[in-house]
Amino acid sequence: MNVFANLGEMNNTGMDANLEYNDKFGNVGLRLFGNITYSKNKIIYADAPLRKYVYQAETGKRFGEYKSYVATGYFVGNEEIANPPEQKFNPVFPGDVRHKNLNATDDKVIDVFDETYLGKSWFPRWLYGAGFGLSYKNFDLSIFFQGVGDVGIMANGSGIDWPGAGSRGAGVIPFSGFGLYPNNTMSIVEDRWTPENPRQDTYYPRLTMANSSDNNYLNSTHGLKDGAYTRLKQASIRYNMKTPKV
Ligand SMILES: [Ca+2]
User: What's the pTM value of the predicted model, to 2 decimals?
Assistant: First the structure.
């Protein structure tokens, strides 16, 4: 009998802490509370075929770490496009994302052998929450913040499950304005590469209609953004009505 299974070994370390403090100063009640979770993991063994290039080996990487291309800006002109290395995903034009040839000593094309681990995972290393409560006579005020840290998001649209919206994966298109995700389309129109605005640091490359193999929608360092955030999760003011004595 043959048994097929995924083999792997991962090293996990972490910590969890909770804090709560309550006190009363005359009529004022104070409550402080917080929690923090830190988790660090490293793949120490993956039952994967031996990689030709060390930078493609899973061992030593983080759980959920993005593996994709290293972007080196946008193509400037047709001459640059005509010269090697050739990108094998789609015909490219000025303003399209240029990817790095990691094995330049062996070939002159950009293909799957040029994918590498990017250091960030979709799985946050830090999770935290903190808040306070204040009470005075019948009033009660409480506020709670929550956040994550050391996490990456792939903001290239590859996570949007929509026909023709790019290859599926983890990701979003910030301020996109189509389908189920209506949003601020103006920022796309304004901060993108155009022949009149051929900046290397625009948020978006040349705009194209997405399809599953479009060069500009590949996972890459161009789409990888810092996913850390802190948000106000809850704020409330309460007034406790006294129950009248019968
Ligand atoms: Ca290559």
Answer: 0.77
**Residue 217 backbone phi and psi in degrees, to 5:** -105, 5
Does a structural domain hold residue 244? no
CA of 85 to the centre of ligand 1 (A): 7
C-alpha to C-alpha distance for 82 and 74, rounded to whole angstroms: 14
Report yes or no on 246 lying in a domain.
Answer: no
Ligand 1 centre and the CA of 130: distance in Å? 47
Distance 94 CA to ligand 1 centre (A): 20
Q: What is the pLDDT along the chain (246 residues), one digit of tens a residue?
A: 666 666 788 899 999 999 999 999 999 999 999 999 999 999 998 877 888 999 999 999 999 899 999 999 999 999 999 999 999 888 899 999 999 999 999 999 999 999 999 999 989 999 999 999 999 999 999 999 999 999 998 887 655 555 544 444 444 555 554 555 555 666 666 788 999 999 999 988 888 765 545 788 888 999 898 989 999 999 999 998 877 676
Total domain count for the chain?
1
235 Cα–ligand 1 center, Å: 52
Give the range of the structural domain holding residue 104, as residue numbers without chain letter. Answer: 8-239
Sign of the alpha-carbon dihedral angle for 224, 228, 233, 235: negative
